[in-house]
Each structure stands twice: as structure tokens, then as C-alpha cells.
Amino acid sequence: MYRRSRDEGFGAEVKRRIMLGTYALSAGYYDAYYLKAQKVRTLLTRDFEEAFRQVDGDCDTDESDGGIPARREVE
Known about the structure:
Distance between the termini: 63 Å
Oligomer: single chain
Number of helices: 3
């Protein structure tokens, strides 16, 4: 059942990419590809966190009463 569903679920291109990725991780390409991708991922995550920290600060209300009530109709 499992084998049949995997054969039917993935096309030839997907199977090639899975095999290539498996080979790359097992054949000593870990440092060249996977580790480098992890470092880039970490840098991107830090950049997004910093950007959202800056935006969150800009979106804070300056009103002492908490700003506009949620259901107030604006004319």
C-alpha cells in the first residue's frame, strides 16, 4: 500500500529531486549546500525579526487612552 501510493503520488521529476537531495546530503556535500543554506536561513530570520521589531515600534499608539475603540464608527 505504501509503495503503491508513493509511486502514484510522485512524478518522475519529484523522484529525481528527492534522490539528488539525498545524495547531496550523504556524499559529503553537507558543508557546501546544507550548512550554507542553514546559515542563510538564520541570517534571513534575524533580518525579518529586526524589521518587525522596528515596524512594531512604529505601530504603537501615542494616545494615553489606548487609541480608537475597536467598534467606533468613523465619519
